[in-house]
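Exercise 7. Given the components listed, write out the predicted structure of the assembled complex. Treat all entries as one system.
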Amino acid sequence: MHQYVHNSNEQLRKRGYRLTPQRYMILSVIQEAGEHLSVDQITERVQQRNPYVSLSTIYRTLELLRELGLVRENRLPGEQPHYEPAEGQAHHHLVCRRCRAIIHLDEALLGNLNEQLQEQYGFHSLTLDLVAAGYCDTCWQEMQKQ
Amino acid sequence: MHQYVHNSNEQLRKRGYRLTPQRYMILSVIQEAGEHLSVDQITERVQQRNPYVSLSTIYRTLELLRELGLVRENRLPGEQPHYEPAEGQAHHHLVCRRCRAIIHLDEALLGNLNEQLQEQYGFHSLTLDLVAAGYCDTCWQEMQKQ
DNA sequence: CAAAGTATGTCACTTTGTATCATATTGTAT
DNA sequence: ATACAATATGATACAAAGTGACATACTTTG
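Answer.
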């Protein structure tokens, strides 16, 4: 079992939940994808392994994993929600409001902001997601023409 | 006309759009609310002024204003999308994954990151939205007990 | 005024997400 | 090992959120 799934198992059990085959599949799918996945994509890939996993389970599981901080839920403006493993502490996106291009930014972008916020507000196990929305240069030029 | 709505009018016309009564009402409602509003709340308040404004128009308008960068669309995990005037350059939230409490953070939190990103990636009129998700101290304590 | 471009309202529809509940699985105590 | 409680799933129906198509209306321009 991969470290991420293994660790997820512990997190689940600590809170009285179980790592069922369905949850295992969902975690694996999210872990193995190199990119963030939509509910649709997750469903598709899970059902390739076992077509009888129900949509309810997928929604319930994603909600649970989100609450436990095991998956990160990205909700960029004008996009479906996407899910990815919450392995790092941060994941940042630069988005064009016009063409909707998405650029992933460096995790380390915000320095030690994480620790700062935890201290200042008494929060725990923080993850940071920055959404920077603007116009890419191409779209900007297009817009100026009009 | 308030400065924000006035400026929105210019932005719209520059791109060949009009500030119709419906758009004016929607902008005003968003501007006058001290907090960010859901589609529901916006609809309710707009229809108090004129009950014949249709839902389609509200969705279409929000999408347009978002694309023009006149309203900011916040999509926090486990929350409905919320809208607020995009007057400042940034708006940051600290969210508890368990009780879903939301704390608004200082606009200036990220320093000159805005300018940095614009230069580095050639983006224009950037707005930054940081979502910091974790557990508030109360929830954290609760969770440890189990 | 006429024509073109822009915007709205209505309604049907799709998509996305939720609630309920019977059934199944797992964990715990005896 | 068995019985019981707790947890999890699948199915179905349902609710909520959002979209598309199109006829009508309003503005702008000439």
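Discussion: Residues 16-18, 20, 22-23, 52-57, 60 of chain B lie near DNA strand C (CB under 10 Å from a C1'). The first helix of chain B runs from residue 3 to 14.
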